[in-house]
Amino acid sequence: MKKIVLGLAATTCLLLAGCGAGPNAQGTPPSSTGGSTGQVGGTGNTSSGNATSNQVTANTSAPTHTTLQPFTGFTTQGIAVDVPAGWKKATTTGGDYIAVTFTNPQNHLESVRVLYSTCVGCYMNSSGQPDPRLVVGEKNPTNVQVQGTGGLVATYDFPVSGSTYVGKGMVQVSNNQSGYAEIDIAVGQEHQTLVNSIIKSFNYSS
Question: What is the annotated signal peptide range for this record (predicted)?
Fold first, then answer.
């Protein structure tokens, strides 16, 4: 009888030890940089000093609830916009522009970029009229549409590098030659409800 009990105990121990075998999933922290490209026409300097990760796979395991909050960094320039709360902030500057990018710390491919530029000549066409299409900062934009009174607003889609995401953007130029503002949004399917809310909140009072 003792031999049978000992045999069963040994077999159970082997089975339990085998159940825990196998490699653990390993991951690297997401990059601090978003999917958006830089402003066309120059190379900017970024204030974020974090190292860029080699990880390129987005974390899209489950939708998360993201709330929006007002961004007041460009209040004196007349820009109002809501951005995702808790997303990592990085600032890039150039000769005539400043851009603030908010990146999802759980998925570096998701970002919201707000840009302000004082370059008036950049959006003036050959006839001396403002054309917001001339200052779209994203590469290879599609579905570009001019809207608003006086044609001062352009909306567009853009591909997000390293993903299948389709970003949404908007440029609004001033009617008094004070500059222009831009918003670029790159999010996955689980955050698509944020896009309309952010676009709706974006306003440039030049």
Answer: 1-25
Domain boundaries of the chain, sorted by first residue:
31-47+67-204
CATH architecture of the region 31-47+67-204:
3-Layer(aba) Sandwich (3.40)
> What pTM does this model have?
0.69
Q: pLDDT by residue (tens digit) across 15-45?
A: 333 443 333 333 322 222 344 444 443 444 4
